[in-house]
Each structure stands twice: as C-alpha cells, then as structure tokens.
C-alpha cells in the first residue's frame, strides 16, 4: 500500500516513541503483567528498578564515594596535624603547648624582638669575653645531656649510649643545646688571645662545629624576610633593623631540660 512521505515519517516517529516507553517501563509491564497477580510480582519489579537505577548512576555513586573518602582523610590529617612538617613529630596539646621531638618536649610560642646591635641595642651576650658576657653564655651552656627511655632511644636515627646514673635509661642531647655548645666553642676561639693555640687543644672541633651549624641552618632553612637598608656612606646594602618574630620559648625548653627528673649531665 502506498503511503505518503509525511504519513510514513509520523508512523516512524510514533514507533520509536513507543519503543522508548517500552524500554523505560518496568520489566513486569513489558512482560504483560496485568496487575491480577499472574504476572511477575512486585518484588521483581522493585529489584529490577534498583538494578536499573544503579546501572544508570553507578559512575556518579563511585565519584561521590571517592570524594567522601578523600574529605574524611583530609579531615583526619588536619586534626592530627600531619603533613610534610616535618621530622619534628609535632603534636597539639592543651593550652597552646606543642609536644615536639622524640622526647615530646612541651613547647610554647612567644613574640620575640631580636637585638643584634644594628640599632645600638645589645644583649648581655653581645661582644668580647668579659665577666658579663661569659656569665650570660654560661647560663645557657649548662643544659648538657638528658635521660630518655628505651622507646625514645629506639626512635633515634642512630644508636645512643645508656645512662651511667640509671642503666635502665639512655642519654641524648636536645639539638638546640648542641648548637649552642658549638657556637660557644667558636666564640671562645674568636676571642682567644692565641686562637691557634686554643684550637690545637682539640683539633677538628672547630671544623665540626662550623659544618654542623652550616648543615643545621640549611636544614631548617629560615624563609622569613629581613628588611634591608641602603648605607649612603658605604654605598652598599645592609641589614636595616632587627625584627620581631614568633619563636619557641627557649626559657621553658631550658627549664624542662634542667629538671632533675631527666637531666643527666652538663658535659657534652
């Protein structure tokens, strides 16, 4: 039978539309369920609908789960303070105190203004050796060694010896006091009447200290920016002023190390 082109196009559209609705219908409807209880039951229809929904939305569900897991992991990392930080092993404690290092030393932060002499402001440590400066240096070079537990000793990057006062404990030195010890040794050499003779008392000590301090500075790599000025007399740039910094409270760390509970010896 001859069919007009327009009529045939309408029939094709109707057939495709009907097929689309048939595919979209639940399986029970497509298989002739009349609702009289003789077709597939409602549980089959529900099961098919669930599988059909999951198949359509599977990718979206997986993406949502991945985002949820990533957000959870990020929250845990932020809460625990994990990150590159660092070999410092820093953990939050109460009252703004941080427990840092293998010995979990309680550390607080404080605002500190540097006084390095560029503005004619001097500390008791500043300048050549005399009774005042020597007393100041001696007051921070008395920390020496502390006792640590076996678990703390095992966490170090190299073996450490045991305490001669308590064989159940081990000994170590908090690095800042090792650094101050080296700086104090170099100060002694600089201001010695005969630096060469002073150095020969312990050959290699000064070289060790210089290299140790160099590596410490590059390891910590301070990235704060210092202000610079122009010296018109010298026609050169120079440090312009001392800065105010947020620093770890050295005094409290010093007190913690000197506590008889853990202080082993002033020797190093």
UniProtKB/TrEMBL annotation:
Listed Pfam families: UstYa (PF11807)
Residue stretches spanning the membrane: 52-77
Biological process annotations from GO: mycotoxin biosynthetic process
Subcellular location: Membrane
Annotated GO CC locations: membrane
Keywords recorded for this protein, A-Z: Glycoprotein, Membrane, Transmembrane, Transmembrane helix, Virulence
InterPro entries in alphabetical order: UstYa-like
This protein's pathway: Mycotoxin biosynthesis
Chief location category: membrane
Bias type Basic and acidic residues, positions: 7-41
Disordered: annotated span: 1-43
Topological category with respect to the lipid bilayer: Single-pass membrane protein
Protein family: Belongs to the ustYa family.
PANTHER family membership: CYCLOCHLOROTINE BIOSYNTHESIS PROTEIN O, YALI0B05434P
Name of protein: Cyclochlorotine biosynthesis protein O
Species this protein is from: Rhypophila decipiens
